[in-house]
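Reading a protein record of the kind used here takes little practice once its layout is understood. An example of such a record is reproduced below.
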Amino acid sequence: MNNPRRITVIGRQRCELCAELLEQLAPYVSAGRLSLEEIDVDTDPVLLALHAWRVPVVMENGRELLWGRIEPAEVQASFGPPPLA
């Protein structure tokens, strides 16, 4: 099995878009295709200054991949077709 891609999701509590994104990413994590770290934007002043109104933000290797309302097609474009259940 290949090493999973390591991504960071910058979000916040009680964020509907963040919860939707995490649901979309869950099959990739469960299948071992992604390793996911979550960071609450409200706990980091630097991230809050950068991303206060842009959450969720998906980062990989310090590079921003996706942000805001993220559609399933965008997730698939970034991480491939969803894993089979």
Remarks:
- The CA atoms of residues 14 and 40 lie 11 Å apart.
- DSSP finds three helices and four strands in the chain.
- The longest strand covers residues 5-11.
- The two ends are 17 Å apart (CA to CA).
